[in-house]
Amino acid sequence: MTPAAAPLDLSATLRAAGYTEPELHRLLGITVPDDVGLLNQAPALERLARDYSAAATLIRLFFLETAEPEQHVARVLARRGCADLVALGMLRRRSGKLQARVRIDAVGGQYFVADRRFQGADRAALRLPNGDAVYPASSDSLMLRDAVVVPGARHLLDLCTGSGIQALQLAGSTERVVAVDVNPRAAAAADFNARLNGVENVDVRVGDLYAPVRGERFDVIIANPPFVASPYANAPSYHSGGPRGDRILRRIIAGLGRHLREGGRAFAITHLALRGGEDVQSVASKWFRDFPGRALVLVVETGTPVDLAAAQALFALGRGLEAYAAEVRRWVEYLRRRRIERVSVLLIAAERGVQRSVEVVDAQPRVLPIPLAPAPVERIKKWLG
Ligand SMILES: C[S@@+](CC[C@H](N)C(=O)[O-])C[C@H]1O[C@@H](n2cnc3c(N)ncnc32)[C@H](O)[C@@H]1O
Q1: Is the shortest distance between the CB of 295 and ligand 1 below 6 Å?
Q2: Residue among 352, 355, 311 at smallest CA distance from 331
Q3: 270: Cβ below 6 Å to ligand 1?
Q4: Taking the complete model, does pTM exceed 0.90, yes or no?
Q5: Which of the ends of the chain has fewer CB neighbours closer than 10 A, N or C?
Q6: What is the best residue among 182, 193, 269 to mutate for testing ligand 1's pocket, by most ligand atoms within 8 Å of CB?
Q7: What are the b/e assignments for 259-276, b being 16+ CB within 10 Å?
Q8: In sequence order, which residues have a C-beta less than 8 Å from that of residue 223 and are 6 or more positions away?
Q9: 114 CA to centre of ligand 1 in angstroms
Q10: How far apart are CA 118 and CA 373, in angstroms?
């Protein structure tokens, strides 16, 4: 089956209708797409209740993934546009309503089609090939994108491309990007997204990490690999990074020497699950033992196994609170059995060159609480005299 071709005018239509990142943030009060999850999808919908503007209609359809009356969608996309998107496999018609078969995230002036967050993947959407669900643009995607510095880079490699977000966001500031994903469905979605955004210098390849770029060298290598220390051995390809979270990342770092040009840079994001007595420095030093250059590892957040379990188990909420509680226990037991005591989120930058070092920096936000107004109890005491 050949995946559908992205209609060139769709992104212009979405933009003209106000389906843009600033408008999404303003109308929903969010800063990253996954600020709306299963827990708060309903309140997010309520924020837009009785808002029949073009932007709100498209947010419900493509971002909150609810079915919209066809006449509302037709006011934005016209009857013909609705019919075209149904034929394309992007929308489905059911009892007078239209439902999106993929989600669309608006990020940095571009659009990213991926599998749905709330409704589950629609396998035949856009005639995408079979494969694990395509990871939608999320906070980790954006944290990595914001950390990448690529002045003058001509030849870029995006490993684990998923929806293609890293490759496409950087395509404008470089000559050529190769984007690789092991999941054919993700690679097809990245290709669709390149065309959706009119980007012509991204070459998407299917394969395991460096296999599709054997013998090639790059100025910049970016990777957002699967990094969750997960109890699920058969998890979707975007998810599990083995018991410590670094199973794929270690292979990515091991290949940097072969694929980075002299002076070339690499950027990655990962989780790292640590046992008592272990520290980031000793693990990171092992990762970069054979790397001919220097590396900076920023610890941007650290949590307990319970924090990780509470967040990762959220997917089970759709089956009810009992299912969620069971899932939290499963994750906590898995991490405890492996004697994991904390899980850090790391941002990694590396540069190939003569200097060899691995520097770990605690970059967790330090917040100083400064009360701007007296506490309620102080006001009550003052009022009482
Ligand atoms: C967390 S998602 C990241 C997607 C995207 N780069 C982003 O920043 O949102 C990880 C992606 O890595 C891909 N992947 C997993 N193992 C891989 C491998 N061995 N080689 C290439 N891609 C892989 C998955 O299919 C998935 O699309």
Answers
A1: no
A2: 311
A3: no
A4: yes
A5: C
A6: 182
A7: bbeeebbbbbbbbbbbee
A8: 158, 159, 160, 249, 252, 266, 267, 268, 269
A9: 13
A10: 40
For residue 192 the two structure tokens come to 């669709």
- Is the CB of 3 inside a 6 Å radius of any atom of ligand 1? no
Which of 113, 138, 160, 204 for a ligand 1 pocket mutation test, highest count of atoms within 8 Å of Cβ? 160
Instruction: Tell whether ligand 1 has an atom less than 6 A from the beta carbon of residue 248.
Output: yes
| Bridge partners, residue 113, by sequence | 104
Report the chain's C-alpha Rg in angstroms: 22
User: Could you read off the pLDDT of 272-324 as tens digits, one per residue?
Assistant: 999 999 999 999 999 999 999 999 999 999 999 999 999 999 999 889 999 99
Distances in Å between the Cα of 193 and the Cα atoms of 6, 79, 128, 136 are 7, 24, 12, 12
Which residue puts its alpha carbon closest to atom 15 of ligand 1? Answer: 237
Q: Are 297 and 345 in contact (CB under 8 A)?
A: no
Atom number in ligand 1 closest to CA 180: 21
8-state DSSP, 129 = P
